[in-house]
## 1
Amino acid sequence: MTTPVTAVELFVYPVKSARGVAKARVRVGASGFECDRQWMLVDAQGTFLSQRTHPQLTRIVPEITDDDLVLHAAGVPVLRVPLDNRGEPLPVRVWKDACVGVDQGAAAHEWASRVLGQAVRLVRAAPDMERAANVKFAGTTPAPLGFADGYPLLVCNRASLEDLNQRLPWRIPIERFRPNIVVSGLPAWAEDRIDTLALGAVTLRLVKPCTRCSIPSLDPNTGERSTDPLPALRKFRFDRDLRGVTFGENAVIERGTGCEIERGARCRVTFDTLAPPA
């Protein structure tokens, strides 16, 4: 009997590069999972901060309630930021993209600056912000973005992590790779050849392997350096065209905006017949 392909884990990352939130059910918005990477911290020049340069971002534990973004961090009081998206517009930058954020106010500025140890501001993606995934890979499918690095969603395969862990001195969790969806029931690295992944009314198109930076070498709970998977991945997962080591697949939303995905949902998979074998 063929093992069913299942979405075994779902994650949302409300604040870019802060801790993720495991979810039992998520709603799919136009730019990815609802509330995913809709907030971020920026420096005095408006440039985004990430764990690459600020590993202490792992201290920030977000929570979404009906009314607020709630931020927790050890040693400081809880911060509550209303979801009404009021505030002054602020020019900000994610990589090469000039974006517009909504400043989340003085209390958020003071709280985040205390946690990060420098002057930073918390911004939310402006409702009318125009930013989209690279059309070279996304193609004609509209793929608007919040503050995610480059694509609305990231899909990872549990079997690929298991294969990787066999090559490492110490096992690492899937959270190191910050996926939105983790699937099981596929052979290791089969995600390389997936064309579409359908979960109920939602259909995703997997468009580009995800090249990895230094973040998977950090403990996702402490920000401290830990087992680095990149040297092992470099031996068999280096993509010459992308000039980087890959793990996971970036995805765009082909249909199903406004619909929900549940953890444990069965997945219908179609493969790209032109893709080389894994």
## 2
Amino acid sequence: MTALLTARGLTYEADGRTILGPLDLEVHPGECLVLVGPNGAGKTTLLRLLTGLLRPRAGELFWRGRPYAALSRRELARCIAYVPQIRPARVPLTVEEVVLLGRYPHLSALQWAPKTADFTAVDEALAVVGVQELRRRPVDELSGGERQAVFIAAALAQEAELLVLDEPTIHLDARHQSDLAGLLLRLAGAAGRTVVLATHDLNLASLLGDRLLALAGGCILAAGRPAEILQPDLLERLFRARFEIVRPGERPVTLLRLEPTP
């Protein structure tokens, strides 16, 4: 299968220190690739490199065989939509206005106002995420889970082939984590949808991932299907903490092992 996105020898440095790489990576059409690893492993850096927001110190990135250097920012934004982990604390816009911003890559240089196709894409994105009733609400009045859903809707309105999400369930309570996980499951299962996300939630990684990529110290420790990666010995090497497999039902679950306080 031809790769949608390819990285070869990808390396990133900051302040003279290697933060990531060198690493090779392929993202295939229709798959959900989940990055897991401890804080400082390089997950966010890798996502920002893949989206073109950072430039690598060395190595090359290709979109369907075309080097990133041959693509304009607008062209790349039509291919890849990114939902970052950190966003502004205040967003003085309505839900509809925020989602409409996702159409920016499709506006021509001489286009001053959105067209019918742009509003149609917004309507479809709101419907997929399930926040149609919030479209007139100010974003600043929404809960954390609702705000996250709105930013995902904006990414969907972008109509990019690849959706990239950085810690999409962070800072959400259990109910909103569950709601968002359900949304991500629907998106990952949608025909033709390709998703790359980073998460600390190993349960979410197990549910969503076709492949998991375990990062440690900016390098790939292991890559494979969830059942291959979510093993106690590998997770102990990755997180430097003890894990164990429990079997509450038919499907075994790998959990962090909490040692009793002496």
## 3
Amino acid sequence: MNDRLKHISFFKQLDDDELKQLGSISRIKHHTVGEILFYEGDVSNKLFILIEGILKAYKTDMKGNEIILHYLYPVAMVAEMANLNRAPFPATAKCESDVTVIEIDYLLFEENFLKNPTISFEIIKSLSQKVKYLENIITTHLTLDATSRVAKFLHDNENVYATMKHNKIATILNMTHETLSRTLRKLKTLGLISDDGKDFHIINKEGLYALFA
């Protein structure tokens, strides 16, 4: 456990005794694709840190439809705002792949580590990244057309694109699978990307940027 913790950026400044103490209130858990990590409304008494795999955070509307809020990739704190506010989880977290998380007893973590300036700063950074992500979602969906949205996604998430199915990406971008496929063909014709179904890479990153900047 200590070896895992000391390689996580949030805890890189902790000494051996602090890592041992943190390890005593933590455990590693593995989850399979499709498994629910927690449901919207569950009590948030654990601090989750995603270290392997992809998590989807979503809410459910009155008709039972999923409203996707965020995809999380390693290494990331998960719903830490709920912990800080002593509030239930505001969304459901579902495993989009096999997932490994570190679960930390939050009350003991708060008591023993939250006053550490380095830890507090890392939590602030994590929260600010999520705010930036939400700002990007708002900007993307309100001001960009389909071509611009796809170009921005590829520009910002080149490595992620290769690991996700097109229907997932279409859902993230709030467009149909057909629109996504048509737009990808357009970007290939423009010579901005290369994608033969197996290998994908960006040929002209500046050209992609120009479509949404």
## 4
Amino acid sequence: MVGPMNDIFAPIRQKKISEEIADQLKSLIYQGQLKPGQRLPSERDLAKSLGVSRVSLREALNTLQGTGLLEIQQGNRTFVRPITTLSVYDPLVSFSKESPSNMMQVFELRKYLEVGSISLAAERADSHEIQRLDEILIEMEDDLLKNRLGARTDLNFHTTLAEATHNQAYIHIMHTIYDLLQEELRVAWGSVFRRKEKRKKLFQQHQNIFYAIKEHNPKEAAQEALEHLDFVGKEWKESLVKEP
């Protein structure tokens, strides 16, 4: 007997290939197998790996770019974005650009999120991540010796700490914060952190954080992280006030 309840059901339809591709990529991002900032293979290679046409692949990539999970740059280079909806990310960008005071509020958010993430990293960092942090410190020391600014190495250190939490939500949130503050990073590294004595102090602070991580000491790691970020925040604030 056909009744009014039948009206609430919709016919099952087979998914389009592009939807299946998008679902697989989305799942890999949520599981952490594709990380924020990671570049995907070329369209040709990715289509070959998935066994699909480049037309279907491109449709899936465009869909995920529209939801904010991917970013397609010039030359069809595709990168994983942090899991933050555009409705959250875009207003935060506008807010942080409104004034130095607003930017420092975002930095304060970063500070306390990062202190927590570094404490968690001290508990959970595995041997591979500890080795990676050690390698980055060697690069930092080389930057100092050769008088390079080392902004990229600094970012690598902090993103590796986030990954050492083994918490995908933390990883994506920290990448979002770093992305929000990239202009301020440029200002700081181009002004106050251009001075070698300041970079030397930063290096020592990163060393102290690393030693606490290596010893799996969350309390010490959080304390060293707070000291480091208090120093950075003070220097950032002074440099931004000087900016025209």
